[in-house]
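I am still getting used to backbone structure tokens and would like to learn alongside you. To get us started, please write out a protein record for me. Once you have written the record down, we can walk along the chain together.
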Amino acid sequence: MNRKVPNSNAAFRPTPFASRLTLIVALVALVGLFLFPYATYGRATGNATAALQLFPGGIQDFTTYLPNPVPDISLALGLGWGTFALLFLVLFAALRRESWLWMAGAAGLVVGVAAIVALEVSLSGAIATLVAQNIRLNRIIYVAGGANLGMAMPLAAFLIALIGGVSGIPVWRARLERLRGALVPLVSILLAVAVGALVVVVIQSVPSNLTGPLSAWQGWLGKLDLVWFLYTTLFAPLTNLPDFFQSLLLATPLILTGLSVAFGFRAGLFNIGAPGQMLMGAIAVMFVGVYLKLPGILLAPLCILAAALGGGLWGGLAGWLKARFGSSEVINTIMLNYIAASLLIFLIGSSEVSFFGQTYQLPFKAEGFEPKSNALQPGAQLPTLPGLLGLDNPETTFPFAPVLGVMVFGILAYALRGRWRWWVALGSGLLVMALLWVTLTVRGDFRLGSNNLNVAFFLALTAAAFYGVFLWRTARGYEVRAVGLSPKAAEYGGINVARNVILAMFISGAFAGLTATHYVMGRALDEYALKQSIPTGVGFDGITIALLGQGTPVGIVVSSIFFGVLDTGGLYADQKLDALSRDIVTVLKALIVLFIAAQGFLARRIISPPPALEPSKPTPLAVGSSETKAEVA
């Protein structure tokens, strides 16, 4: 008998969806190479006006004071032609669904990154020359130079080609399938970015120092650069260590409130009482940290426990009301938010209170007009992270590039398989180290300055680890998830539904209460004290974090850092663009929630496809069919 031998090349061909997506993005990148700004020579210090390099040649200067002569970036432009050729190669491979599509993508990434490195080296050389002439960095336009949309789009196309190409390899396809849950958040973010770009184009005029109206070509380039500037500014904290620490500072309470909301979701509960649970945790920390006289080695752990218990008991109360009387946890938590806020005002809003005609003195408010408590005892104060690392001195620098290079090496060495993984991991780590060393060492420094990022960040990461272990590695966590999926089925299986509802709300509230370790114990509000200005709005932001993170601990941590980066970058965008404010970040967050609710407009077969059929097990309809007989013939 003759059996059909499958084509080995066809077996490793990329999927049709991956090929079509690669084809579209590569085509846009190919056209954009000539129609988008290729690079930015530099940007004005006080506003967003820029001097743009076009491909294959030409300069559009909106600043009107670009130094002459400009840096020689002929190598970066030459590598641009290599990018152009490789984009054609990717288009050909994607159109024919060739098995070597990933190789073309990998080669394109190497050339694209090399072009960016060449550009950075050229600009850094110009900076060094001007610095040697005793010109300050903040007066040199090239400091704000770098890649632009024309350089970035090919990199995106090559990355998609690489991922799409390896999707045809069975081993990598199985690994990529595990990331399918990230499709909805990722697509939602991309859609929000696209809609946000349209809003920016409509609202904000092109930053320009040119006299007279702009031509259609100048307006096109200016609007594209405007969008590029906005989003690179929003994500700039990822390339600046002090700003990244500030982003982690903002992300710390978001992690905890996101875990709070997500834990409730897993139990089938909608906990929107995180603001009140935050306040009750903070009040509990104040009582323990200010008035309980204990050694520091005991006081700090007791304060952390008090924060969790304060929020947990407040959340558990809403859970008990639902379990005992069947009342809605949504209404309960909303009402409890108001009670907690009123209790905070009662305690620290004034030093005296009138009751039935009598005036009583309260000892909780600190002296002065500001509504705040007395300072915590030194043993209850959490140290800042720069202080632990010895970087709180403004003159101390930190070797960020080597650390990140080692991190990239470790991640790739763990994720990759095969005999070449060590060389790939080592090469990638060295490349990242070299690129960051050039961009960060020449253009700035690693000084952290004053930063209030504290140990509460590690407590938040510990809480995320507990969240994952408890829900997916313990019997009690299994019961909580079972109640969330189907309370009646769980009860039929012998699970105590009421007890698990109370437990879920208690743990959910404890996560929110732990934000007190950040705001009160960690001096996030510039003082080791409970203040009326504690930002309870992050309790509602936890809903967005839980949705964006898909209820997973890693997703919640990454989403929180993502929002922290946006909030930090939004401050700089507000300073540089006159028609836009920090509200653009709020708009992006709202759009992300909207698109997540719509499942990113993705088809169900993409989000949750049916399980793949094993080739060795034909379907019942295929047994004895003409196709089966033909293969055996």
Summary: The radius of gyration is 28 Å. The first strand starts at residue 39 and ends at 43.
